């Protein structure tokens, strides 16, 4: 049976890991703290600590024998921490690793004034954060060429799913309807991220680049309005973008406006999205009790 090693067992990667574990895969990976490592050990996941500031103790041993690897740790100012501290450990597994997926972001494309982008488009990041992503992508593809490890890039849209969605933000009072005319965001359900990664594992293509987004880029306020309707409550008032109080990072997301095509994951990988738009995703989350008591109305 296959073994998956994940650098950064966070929200998206854990969804994939648990999905594969249910099918008998061996799962190992890194977390930032001992408490989370202990919690995952209770699930049968071998987790070792790696905070990105130095080599992680036990990483090399836990990585050994993994034929599939996911990297979901973002780069810092000093570059990609996995390549910085564990390049040699990965290179030693070159004869074993059949697939390595680097989880990136569609933010690397920058602003397209609402236009559609495909994987063939050049990157054009508008923030230092996304510029570092472009550098990391380049470094990972080069690493793959040097070692013979098949490296794929997955540029992911805004992620939502259980515990992280408009229903929850409405319930806890943090939802806002910020309106910037013409602005759309791309998004994807976390379960569909796992579907795409699994499909790529079955059809690895070294150097492959894939956009992970659903079929319906949409204004962010529309998502909040729809979720509020499902909950049977009034949505928060609309706030013009210019008047909204926002953190610099939150405001930076509105500096890029684009629509991400997902044609490649369908045509090349044969993916059929479980949640092709935000409505179907919110509907399923609502039925699962998100944003309300499971037994509530």
Automatic annotation (TrEMBL):
Q: Provide the GO MF annotations for this entry.
A: aldehyde dehydrogenase (NAD+) activity
List the InterPro entries hit by this protein, alphabetically. Answer: Epimerase_deHydtase, NAD(P)-bd_dom_sf, NAD(P)-dependent_oxidoreduct
- Name under which the protein is recorded: Nucleoside-diphosphate-sugar epimerase
Q: Which GO terms describe its cellular component?
A: cytoplasm
Q: Domain (NAD-dependent epimerase/dehydratase): give its ranges.
A: 88-213
Q: Which SUPFAM superfamilies does this UniProt record tie to the protein? A: NAD(P)-binding Rossmann-fold domains
